[in-house]
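Notes continue from the previous slide.

Worked example: a multi-chain complex. Inputs as given:
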Amino acid sequence: MKSIFWIAKREMGSFLYSPIFYVVTTVFLVLYSFLFFAILSDFSQASLQAAPQAAALQKAGYSINANEMVIVPSLGNMSVILLFIIPLITMRSFAEERKNKTFALLLSSPVHLGEIVAGKFLACFAIAAFMILLSSYSIIMITMLGEPEWGPIFSGYLGVLLMTGCYIAMGVFASSLTDNQIVAAVIGFGLAFLMWLMALPAQNADTGIGTILEYLSLGSHLEPFLKGIVDSSDLTYYLSFMAFVLFITYRVLDSRRWR
Amino acid sequence: MIEVEHLTKNYGPRPAIKDLSFQINPGEVVGFLGPNGAGKTTTMNILTCILPATEGKARVCGFDTFDQSLEIRKVIGYLPETPPLYQDMVVSKFLEFSAGLRHVPKKKIAAAVDRVLERCGLGDVRHRIIGRLSKGYQQRVGLAQAMIHDPKILILDEPTIGLDPIQIIEIRKLIQELGTAHTILLSSHILPEVTQICQRVIIINEGEIVAMDTLDGLNASMRHSRRLELKVRHSTDGIQGKLEGLHQVLSVQTRGQNLFVIESKPDVQLQDEVARLALDQQWGIEELKPMDMTLEDIFLKLTTEEKDVKETQV
């Protein structure tokens, strides 16, 4: 177990030395903030217009709230931006080790292959979580402007983190396939995008297949979290998704030794 | 310490090593010699549990490379041909990382790092980034990484490749010192290196062992004849003929104007007679010395003989 810690620590350290991390974090924050402020200005416009009839609207059962109109779409946007960003974080994990021939050090050390995979995954996850944490300045801004409900915020962030974990698992998997980082990033992005779009043809498919596609889609499991619902089936979906993809990664690395 | 029995590894249909068997005893420094592509790295990768063998068994410290690889990896230190260095790390941090990976207890890591830094002469560069170091220093960091957990066995794949002559001498000296406390298997295609460092040599060519002996043993077994080298000042015609005329001389070759190689049976002493002849004829002796077979000769002889056999089979 200690080996996981050592591997994750080294991986994170080398992120902090590489320009990739800073560029990716900046791009992520710029994109997120841009969309966040667009949503925020929409929201303030809407609340300004609604202000004179506030009492009437409330009577009719409508309400304008920051949770639904700002935080939910912002987190939704974030999950899409991460789709593009995460493969750039995961692309190096195994590809770089192979290219620089440093993998021999890990393989000839008394470390289980599973520990190597876990260490790589955790390092990428910590980096991504840090990026997401930086973006939470937007939530603090909202708390200064209004009184959002905390429940859906936490569950929403939990959902985004779980989804990110799935992106990372796929990215690490892609990186285990090749020693070219760009190839790894493209495959990682392709896989993540495909899993995210999975529900798209569901409406036109047979009900059976449609349900399966809907279930497999990464996006459809995020919505309940954003609404504040933490369903065990969604949790199970995300966790088993990660475990499964990481297991395949382990098998790929193991089989590459045999050629 | 290391036992290899009938080891075979195929890459696809192409065999990299064929039916390799050898043993290395505790405390030995063994040279693993062969031309590029002979299968040295493959064998080392199997011994360090990076690759599984196709057939055969390899045991290190009594542990099987296939079933008990984690146990083996605790007691070996491996320096691959390309040192596995994270270019963006500081030397001391990298060594701490290697120590952690090798299960060095946390309290002992700092001491272990200091020890290998001193041992490998890295004290001055401990705070520098690995990628900025010269090749020689990088090689030393690679070596330091391999010995951070004080392993019983060191496996070094071409430890002096790509270094300049001074660095080569330093690394060789270091390996010689290490040889007193560790069992070392070292591969090389540079022959003098092996002559200097190793007690025993395993020569491998195209995946097969062609010879395995101590240096003296190899010399003796390869010596089907005894050779003398004679260098004279005055080159006159007929020297070759007169030398050939001597009793018990098998052949005389000329090398250049006034250099002759005289070959005789292994149990004959010819120096006196050659000297007498040279003095009588007033050739002017510049040099007269017995020629030992260098490892180069042995190596070439073994590897090319091997080829001859194969060609006749075809």
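Summary box: Chain A has one domain: 2-39+55-257. The mean pLDDT of chain A is 90.
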